[in-house]
Write a structure and sequence with these properties.
The protein has 198 residues and is mainly α. It has helices at residues 3-23, 26-43, 50-72, 87-119, 127-141, 143-149, 165-194.
């Protein structure tokens, strides 16, 4: 296998391990938000922001921890036969089934990008052109010009009405990291089949 593949696997593993180890502490943020929600309902006026904030924190916890979970092999699997197979058979099956995972994650990323573009006020049919022009405007004319290129920012329909683009962008980032980690797992399985990775 080319050295660049080994470098890719190491770099993606290190990045997703770092992000996943930080993301796992979001569970304490979630606990704090829910504790405040319970306390404010009993002792004070109930806060409008707590349940939606808890949902947003849970999204971050889930999607940023997903690539690390894939890396550790702790994702949920149907293990009727898999556990009894040899490492080589597992590598064959994993190398084949990761193609389905990559297809699913690609469709999910596309949908996330379309939804994020919508939340930034783009209602057309070409979200990639929108993002490219937005980045181009930001780099050439600055942040204020890029801000003017945005449309009506989508808000949640709840009483608190937070903007939705941050959580939708976080979902896109998490899915993109899962794609990178899945590719690293694919290359690792190919290395196992060729006998260059244990």
């Amino acid at each position: 296998m080319p050295r660049v593949i080994f470098c890719y696997i190491s770099a993606i593993d290190a990045m997703n391990r770092f992000i996943g180890r930080i993301a796992m502490y979001l569970i304490f943020v979630l606990i704090g938000v829910l504790l405040w929600s319970s306390a404010s309902k009993v002792l004070l006026t109930p806060s409008m922001w707590t349940l939606e904030t808890a949902q947003f924190v849970m999204v971050g916890y889930f999607v940023l921890g997903g690539p690390y979970s894939i890396q550790l092999g702790s994702n949920v699997r149907m293990d009727l036969f898999y556990g009894d197979w040899s490492p080589r058979t597992k590598a064959w099956v994993d190398a084949f089934t990761v193609c389905f995972l990559l297809f699913y994650l690609g469709v999910l990323l596309y949908g996330g990008l379309v939804s994020t573009a919508y939340s930034l006020g783009y209602f057309g049919d070409e979200p990639f052109d929108f993002f490219l022009s937005l980045v181009g405007t930001f780099l050439t004319e600055g942040p204020s010009a890029a801000g003017e290129a945005l449309g009506f920012l989508e808000r949640s329909p709840t009483a608190w009405r937070p903007w939705l683009w941050p959580v939708k962008s976080l979902i896109c980032l998490g899915v993109f990291l899962m794609i990178l980690q899945s590719l690293a797992e694919f290359f690792r399985d190919i290395g196992r089949l060729r006998g260059v990775i244990d």
